[in-house]
Automatic annotation (TrEMBL):
Residues that bind pyridoxal 5'-phosphate: G218, Y356
Record function comment: Specifically catalyzes the decarboxylation of meso-diaminopimelate (meso-DAP) to L-lysine.
Native organism taxonomy: Bacteria, Pseudomonadati, Bacteroidota, Flavobacteriia, Flavobacteriales
Official protein name in the record: Diaminopimelate decarboxylase
Catalytic activity: meso-2,6-diaminopimelate + H(+) = L-lysine + CO2
């Protein structure tokens, strides 16, 4: 997507607007499958929570992907997108037994991460295949909010609770067909991931009828030129060797599963905003854009750094700006960074906006959520309309306060 293409999209669909490149998504998917080409049975389940637009889900179906879902709503989106139930795994956290039973009734693969629900579900549905999410007690991830495999995490069943876990399975005679882990996002240290994998292999030996082992995901993507990222090719080589050796030890070929989200869509997305005001104070020059953390909360929530470029003046001289939004609290996207000289009306492009950006957007300040556009086959396709005021008030109910 060249600058002139993005500028035309901003003109045609107005700003702010999210834009996704289908070619980049396909390239990332192929990169991951190629890295694990030595594994006989590989299954990639795209993590819907990263970017849940139904057109994006349909794109992943054409690539041969399955889906990783965390809510019954995501399950239903996947079914609407044309995925069969067996192509979907349901990996919630802290949801009710009723929601898990709803997903099971739809026929998707169930993944349970706590002993209480496991015992209740196994007692009521012993024949339904269940995957178990294990907590390996391995700290991995780029931020404490996205590190989910450590000892104090709310996610997964502790490896120290394996005896209790086995007792529940023996008492209920339930069908365990998979085990799973996810240590966190933005993983850089491959050795830490491999260490956690060995824990999962050891745990797998307790279960005799497994069909797959799911290693989660969390691969780090680069956020700027020269940035460090997970060496997916090295991980593919090392983990494939260990997985194939384990399958021989286990006695049959299992499926190696992953749940990539950010790795597949982050770099494919950009977020386009228009500069409303260039404001200079005693010490700072602000570029104030027509958006805020209601549309892109990751910099404020995680401290994530999205590279920002001025595509209206990509060859202008560089100056220092702080890029901020229009929300009534502090919503700083970047502080004192070098950007080509900015004028009011310019379009700024935020990179790495494909994952956990639109899906975390809100109507804070009663603002509309932006449109989404898919750049596919060298054409811009609107895949979500910009909200209107009618959308804001649609589900509100006015009552007669004089009654």
């Amino acid at each position: 997507m060249e600058h002139k293409t993005l500028l035309q999209i901003a003109k045609d669909f107005e700003s702010p607007v999210y834009v996704y490149d289908s070619d980049k998504i396909g390239a990332q998917y192929k990169r991951l499958t190629s890295a694990f080409s030595k594994v006989k049975k590989l299954k990639l389940n795209y993590a819907v929570k990263a970017l849940s637009n139904i057109s994006i889900l349909k794109l992943f179906k054409t690539l041969g992907s399955g889906l990783d879902t965390v809510s019954i709503q995501e399950v239903k989106l996947g079914l609407m997108a044309g995925f069969s139930p067996e192509q979907i795994i349901f990996t919630p956290n802290g949801v009710s037994l009723e929601e898990i039973e709803m997903a099971a009734k739809l026929g998707v693969q169930i993944n349970i991460d706590n002993l209480s629900i496991l015992e209740q579900f196994g007692t009521r549905h012993p024949k339904t295949p269940v995957c178990i999410r294990i907590n390996p007690h391995v700290m991995a991830g780029g931020n404490t909010n996205i590190s989910v495999g450590h000892i104090d995490s709310k996610f997964g069943i502790s490896i120290h609770q394996i005896p209790h876990l086995l007792r529940i399975i023996d008492n209920t005679k339930m069908n365990i067909n998979g085990i799973h882990m996810h240590t966190g996002s933005d993983i850089l240290d491959i050795d830490v991931f491999l260490y956690a994998s060995e824990i999962l292999f050891d745990t797998a030996l307790h279960f005799k009828d497994l069909e797959f082992i799911d290693f989660g995901s969390g691969f780090k993507v680069p956020y700027k030129e020269g940035d460090i990222e997970t060496n997916i090719e090295e991980l593919g080589q090392k983990l494939s060797e260990r997985f194939n050796a384990f399958c021989k030890k286990y006695g049959r070929e299992l499926t190696l599963a992953f749940e990539p989200g950010k790795f597949l869509v982050s770099e494919a997305g950009v977020f386009l905003t228009k500069v409303n005001v260039v404001k200079q104070t005693t010490s700072t020059v602000f570029a104030q854009v027509d958006s805020g953390f209601n549309h892109l909360i990751r910099p404020m929530l995680y401290g994530s750094q999205h590279e920002i470029i001025n595509i209206s003046n990509s060859k202008g001289r560089e100056r220092f700006y702080s890029v901020v939004g229009y929300i009534c609290e502090t919503d700083t996207f970047a502080s004192n960074i070098r950007i080509n000289e900015i004028s009011e009306g310019d379009i700024l492009c935020f990179k790495n906006a494909g994952a956990y950006c639109f899906t975390m957007a809100s109507n804070y300040n009663s603002r509309f959520r932006p449109a989404e556009v898919l750049w596919h086959n060298k054409k811009a396709h609107l895949i979500r309309k910009r909200e209107t005021f009618e959308d804001i008030i649609n589900n509100q109910i006015e009552i007669d306060l004089g009654a």
